[in-house]
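chain below, 210 aa
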Amino acid sequence: MIKILVADDHAVVREGLKRIIAETADLVVAGEASNGQEVLEKVQNGHWDVVLLDISMPGRGGLDVLRQLKGEKPKLPVLVLSMHSEDQYAVRVLKAGAAGYLTKDSAPEQLVNAIRRVIRGRKYISPSVAEKLAFDLEIDFKEALHENLSDREYQVLCMIASGKTVTEIAERLALSVKTISTYRTRILEKMKMTNNAELIRYAIKQGLVE
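prediction:
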């Protein structure tokens, strides 16, 4: 049996994934986690064949968790499952070591195919992401201002650009309003901008928000 660890802070999502996977004889959800720290502890204390990781859990950022997982268990395939569009996170998580990226509205058979693919040591990416990766090879990636941001800063940028307030972001990430305000200040400084309107225009132009 292929043992899968499902990491998502929404119980409904975890239950849905379990039902999809239960229909496949050789796959089994052998564990669940609802936050980043729990993911790390379960990986350290158990044996898993693949991790299904939500990139937007509260508390410790999903990208941060992904990087630590790959540092501690480099051969463990991590398949990122996210509510965010591919344009926002796919390339970034693949560069951080993810074995693949799927949006949560993907078809059930797509999820099963992705799991089987990464188990064999291969990457799972859609044609559109493959095209974007190829395009990135042709340009100086450092030209994009958001590439100078940390993973957490990038996450906050995307949330600001999607219209969320500092308070809403703080609640979603289980951080203080003061901490989010500090991240916002750093983002503005690094990107040489002065207000949210400029951040939003930039994010739309770069395709970071829908």
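The chain has two domains: 2-136, 141-206. The longest strand covers residues 27-33.
thats it, cya
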